[in-house]
Specification:
The chain has 627 residues and is α+β, with helices and mostly antiparallel strands. The protein contains 18 helices and 23 strands. The chain has a seven-stranded mixed beta sheet, with no helix packed on it. A five-stranded mixed beta sheet has the order 17-18-19-21-20. Strand 3 and strand 4 form a beta hairpin. Helix 7 packs across helix 8, helix 11 packs across helix 12 and helix 15 crosses helix 17. The radius of gyration is 25 Å and the shape is globular. 46% of the residues are buried. The protein binds zinc ion. Zinc ion binds next to helix 5.
């Protein structure tokens, strides 16, 4: 295994161990030593726990869901592993820790909680006896438990019962369970959840398909998972099958639409397995959450949590299902060691998602997705600045909230790195490499340095290929050799758009045939200062302001804000912002309002919308709008 020589200095020197040659000199160009990449420091900067001293191996969760007081109350019991460690350290934040017990016989012990760090929260240190193998913590959540969103009946689709869901990634699980909250620490779990009779409860585990009569549910996750993948939801939802191994949970008024929208899920699962090996998680189901959910989807094992904004009626946004399903391999099976390595979860998942989409919906469709991704990535890098350290794949989030790293960089730049490798090696070779990668690292974590060594040996050296992985991973901006996707369908749209803009003539557009992706591309390439006449003409014919497709709504509203047409459709925009809590839409729309001197309007809409948003979206917008 040989590696390119790299001048030592700056950022790279902190990541590579330098083995000196006999002469001992190490001055850049003159130096003749060998550089061996070694495993980077894989310590997770966002946890207090020290798994090398004492680590959790199994969790037993026992909680009451108190909708009235908006809190979870109960206990968590852990089986732990250690060699005469004096203590075990857990992460906690916004929790009321009441009592800590040691051993099966539950003898009470003292514990200490450190002062709260604004990002990591507090450490919970529990002294251990040499033979202690079980610890139990009695606790309850508080209004500071940011993973939880408690929704009133009014905030749900059916408006009769309240709804609770959790969002653990990146470091919020510690706000509803005191735990070792690091992606590098995996454990199995069992849980008993008591909710209101008449409501359903589900977790990232084997799930019930019918409501229990008394509101008591038990769960089992037999595969070891990191804490960020523990999830819970409770509300008035029901189950519908979409295939032998797949199904959907949704509120009754959405259930049929959701089952129809996701009817290709089983096909996706079969396609995914054929490409990269057995699906290890039993069933794959989806839960449709209320619109306040801050993300598109969350890959909770066995049960993806999804935004209702993907229910477009024409399956046009089910890329998200392919994405969350792909996480069953990249992320849930092979997990990034720290949030600095997020691209190993997300870049792989976008690549895998596109391969699923290509098999199920065809090359044409996937080319459009790839080109949209490329254009968005270029715009994002321009906005962030070409030399912005956060445009590196390997991030440095120490001392910062790991949520700051959740830009599209790890997703889309990561995707194009894998796409480059695929093009270089050829699909057959690359697929064999990826299958082996998933097998070799199953139920383990991986960090960027390990991946480089693995890929260099198993893909590049094994096939006599030259490729600069370091450049892609450690350099800012977009590498010059990034493949540029082509799409014939988008080329047609571009020609028609030019003709339409020149004459404001709708006959130039063959829009009847357009997919949602063609609409999105069309709106995105329209000039920012498009005239009010053009906007009106489009809106009158295609009713874009009231589109059923949230992606189209979002780009249309953004354009309208920039060119001033938004004053005509103010209500639609406000309604959208108040109803939908998905940060992907909120950030660009509030930013557009801010950038067009409508700061006060943005703040007044936000004041109404804020109670509907999850804490993750609130945090972003509080900052943006000085709230
Ligand atoms: Zn993802």
């Amino acid at each position: 295994m040989t590696f390119k020589r790299i001048a030592v200095g700056g950022y790279l020197s902190t990541l590579f161990l330098v083995l000196l040659c006999a002469c001992g000199g190490n001055k850049s160009d003159e130096w003749t030593g060998v550089l061996l990449p070694v495993e980077e420091d894989s310590t997770d900067p966002h946890t207090y726990s020290k798994p090398e001293i004492a680590v959790i191996t199994h969790m037993d969760l026992d909680l009451d869901v108190d909708f009235k007081a908006k809190k979870l109350v109960g206990s968590v019991t852990y089986k732990i592993k250690h060699e005469k460690a004096p203590e075990i350290i857990l992460d906690t934040r916004g929790l009321k820790i009441k009592q800590v017990m040691l051993g099966e016989q539950e003898s009470e012990t003292s514990f200490s909680i450190s002062p709260e760090d604004s990002i990591k929260g507090s450490s919970l240190t529990i002294p251990l006896a040499p033979l202690t193998r079980v610890i139990k913590i009695y606790y309850e959540t508080t209004e500071k438990s940011n993973a939880l969103q408690w929704l009133s009946p009014q905030q749900t689709a059916d408006k009769v019962h309240p709804f609770l869901y959790t969002q653990g990634q990146p470091i919020l699980t510690r706000t509803w369970i005191p735990t070792q909250d690091s992606p590098g620490i995996r454990f199995t779990y069992d849980a008993t959840i008591r909710t209101l009779p008449g409501l359903m409860a589900v977790m990232s585990a084997e799930n019930p398909r019918q409501k229990s009569h008394d509101g008591v549910y038990t769960f089992k996750q037999v595969n070891p998972v990191p804490a960020y993948l523990i999830a819970l939801a409770s509300g008035d939802f029901q189950f519908a099958e979409t295939g032998p191994r797949t199904g959907v949970y949704a509120e009754l008024s959405l259930l049929q639409a959701a089952a129809a929208e996701f009817s290709d899920t089983d096909k996706m699962l079969n396609v995914a397995e054929k490409m990269y090996g057995t699906y290890n998680w039993g069933r794959y189901d989806l839960l449709v959450l209320p619109p306040s959910f801050p993300f598109g989807g969350m890959e909770n094992p066995c049960l993806t949590f999804a935004t209702p904004t993907i229910l477009a009626g024409d399956k046009s946004l089910t890329t998200l299902v392919a994405h969350e399903l792909a996480h069953s391999w990249s992320g849930n099976l092979v997990t990034n060691a720290t949030w600095n390595d997020l691209w190993l979860n997300e870049g792989f998942t976008v690549y895998f998602e596109r391969r699923i989409m290509e098999e199920v919906y065809g090359v044409d469709f996937t080319e459009m997705l790839n080109l949209l991704t490329y254009n968005n990535l270029k715009t994002l890098i321009t906005k962030m600045g070409n030399d912005n350290p956060d445009t590196r794949l390997k991030m440095d989030l120490e001392g910062r909230n790991p949520d700051d790293g959740l830009t599209r960089i790890p997703y889309d730049k990561g995707f194009f790195l894998l796409k480059s490798l695929e093009q270089l090696a050829g699909r057959k070779t690359f697929d064999a490499f990826l299958s082996q990668y998933f097998k070799d690292h199953a139920y383990q974590t991986i960090q960027t340095g390990q991946f480089i060594i693995y890929a260099q040996e198993k893909l590049l050296n094994a096939n006599k290929l030259e490729f600069d992985l370091n450049d892609w991973i450690y350099t800012t901006g977009l590498p010059a050799d990034c493949p540029v996707p082509q799409s014939d369908r988008f080329e047609k749209v571009e020609k028609q758009t030019k003709a339409f803009v020149a004459k404001n003539d709708l006959k130039k557009l063959e829009a009847k045939e357009w997919s949602a992706q063609e609409w999105i591309h069309f709106i995105k390439i329209l000039p920012r200062d498009l005239s009010a006449d053009h906007m009106e003409n489009l809106d009158r014919s295609f009713n874009l302001s009231n589109s059923r497709n949230a992606e189209i709504q979002a780009v249309w509203y953004e354009l309208a804000i920039f060119n001033g047409y938004s004053s005509n459709i103010q209500e639609s925009i406000s309604d959208f912002l108040i109803k939908v809590g998905r940060r992907k839409y909120l950030s660009p729309l509030y930013t557009a309002l801010k950038e067009t001197d409508q700061y006060e309007l943005a703040r007044s809409i936000y004041a109404k919308a804020r109670p509907n948003y999850h804490s993750i979206s609130q945090q972003t917008l509080d900052q943006m709008l000085d709230f």
